[in-house]
């Protein structure tokens, strides 16, 4: 009789899958574990590159696909998508009967999965709790998932303390580092020449990797702020601009339209990709002068490659930062000043000494071993821990 513990991993976005990829591989190889994989959200949407295909191309079988993404980027559409997800996950978990559901992050797709697991009394493990991103509703979602979860895998000691501050017993909270670092260190990267051929664009002297997501607590300001970013990058001389589309957050379509419009008018220097895929994304990240925009990748991943980040606005406000990150307001003048700082000799010297506060690898191995050995009887009752 097969008594392997069934770990059901949920993924809804390209970036999240990249962070989970090594964990998926290790679960699949573990003699005491059985991998179940559920894909949802952006993975199944044509406008975001149908990235479930990349998951399958990596050799993973997707056990269930949850269609939950409505063709709307309004708050009403996002709310309805969450509701559809809750229905889909209820059915999926009933059919798969996992021993543990593992989720990462703070998006509405993951909120639906976490809620369904909690209501079904399935032990929930959560990666990346305790972080703060004041500019987006993801901040509230992340803390809500912490209160639903039974096992916690924060990325730093500061975040571990915050999870405990939220009332989670210390013995359930494991500071493991961030698994995004593992994916970076284990991925074979493409050369500059290979990327130019693959992406069908010639790289100029400078290379900028640009992702700008809506700041969901600021509503329709997203488009205006992105136009300011375009004004700033347009004035950077001899630069190639690689844009990746934003996540399917509220107000994101206006950003996509502006992005596509700019690239169409500047085919010699700009290209837009719905999804670069993990290998190509990390390869561009390694070669880039900077990550520009407000993606968590610039905060969590870029320091490992000692790649600079120009972090725009408040989306990532509250996250721990390396010295490789330059923060600026979402105004063209402030961004131009940030570029001047980026290329200054003092900052370039500082960049060489950058250390990633999210660890130097091994988080995935730690997470999988904890999942394999965790006493699930401890999950039968949710206990609130009061600080001494």
Q: Please state the second-level CATH architecture of the largest domain.
A: 3-Layer(aba) Sandwich
Succession of helices and strands: EHEHEHEHEHEHHHEHEHEHEHEEHHH
What is the number of independent domains? 2
Find the count of extended strands (DSSP E, 2+ residues): 12
Q: So what's the overall shape?
A: globular
Rg over alpha carbons: 20 Å
Largest sheet: 6 strands, parallel
Strand content: 15-25%
The helix/strand class is alpha/beta
Instruction: Point out poorly predicted stretches.
Output: none
CATH superfamily of the largest domain: Glycogen Phosphorylase B
CATH class category label of the largest domain: Alpha Beta
Separate helix tally: 15
- Helix proportion: 40-55%
Q: What is the residue-mean pLDDT, rounded to a whole number?
A: 93
Describe the protein's architecture and organization.
- With 388 residues, this protein is an alpha/beta fold.
- The protein has two domains: 191 residues, 3-Layer(aba) Sandwich (Rossmann fold), CATH 3.40.50; 161 residues, Glycogen Phosphorylase B (Rossmann fold, 3-Layer(aba) Sandwich), CATH 3.40.50.
- It is 42% helix and 15% strand.
- It is built from 15 helices and twelve strands.
- It has a six-stranded parallel β-sheet, with helices on both faces. A six-stranded parallel β-sheet has the order 9-8-7-10-11-12, with helices on both faces.
- Helix 9 crosses helix 13.
- The longest helix has 22 residues.
- The radius of gyration is 20 Å and the shape is globular.
- The N and C termini lie far apart (46 Å).
- The mean pLDDT is 93.
């Amino acid at each position: 009789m097969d008594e392997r513990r069934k770990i059901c991993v949920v993924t809804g976005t390209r970036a999240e899958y990249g962070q989970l990829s090594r964990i998926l591989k290790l679960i699949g190889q573990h003699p005491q574990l059985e991998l179940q994989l559920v894909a949802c959200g952006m993975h199944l949407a044509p406008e975001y590159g149908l990235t479930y295909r990349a998951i399958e191309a990596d050799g993973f079988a997707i056990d269930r696909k949850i269609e939950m993404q409505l063709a709307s980027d309004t708050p009403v559409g996002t709310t309805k998508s969450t509701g559809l997800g809750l229905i889909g996950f209820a059915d999926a978990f009933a059919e798969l009967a996992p021993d543990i559901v593992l989720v990462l992050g703070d998006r509405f797709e993951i909120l639906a999965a976490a809620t369904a697991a909690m209501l079904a009394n399935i032990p929930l493990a959560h990666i990346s709790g305790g972080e703060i991103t004041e500019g987006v509703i993801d901040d509230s979602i992340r803390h809500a998932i912490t209160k639903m979860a039974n096992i916690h895998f924060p990325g730093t000691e500061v975040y571990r303390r915050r999870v405990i501050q939220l009332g989670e017993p210390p013995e359930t909270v494991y500071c493991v580092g961030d698994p995004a670092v593992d994916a970076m260190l284990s991925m074979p990267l493409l050369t500059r020449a290979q990327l130019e051929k693959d992406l069908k664009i010639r790289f100029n002297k400078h290379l900028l990797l640009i992702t700008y997501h809506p700041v969901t607590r600021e509503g329709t300001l997203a488009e205006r702020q992105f136009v300011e970013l375009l004004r700033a990058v347009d004035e950077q001389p001899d630069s190639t601009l690689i844009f990746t589309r934003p996540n399917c957050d509220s107000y994101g379509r206006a950003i996509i339209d502006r992005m596509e419009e700019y690239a169409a008018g500047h085919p010699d220097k700009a290209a837009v990709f719905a999804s670069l895929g993990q290998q190509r994304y990390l390869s561009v990240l390694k070669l880039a002068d900077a990550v520009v925009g407000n993606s968590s990748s610039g905060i969590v991943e870029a320091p490992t490659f000692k790649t600079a980040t120009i972090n725009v606005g408040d989306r990532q406000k509250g996250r721990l930062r390396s010295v490789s990150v330059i923060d600026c307001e979402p105004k063209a003048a402030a961004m131009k000043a940030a570029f001047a700082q980026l290329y200054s000799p003092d900052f370039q010297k500082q960049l060489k000494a950058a250390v990633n506060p999210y660890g130097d690898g091994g988080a995935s191995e730690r997470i999988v071993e904890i999942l394999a050995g965790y006493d699930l009887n401890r999950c039968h009752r949710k206990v609130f821990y009061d600080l001494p």
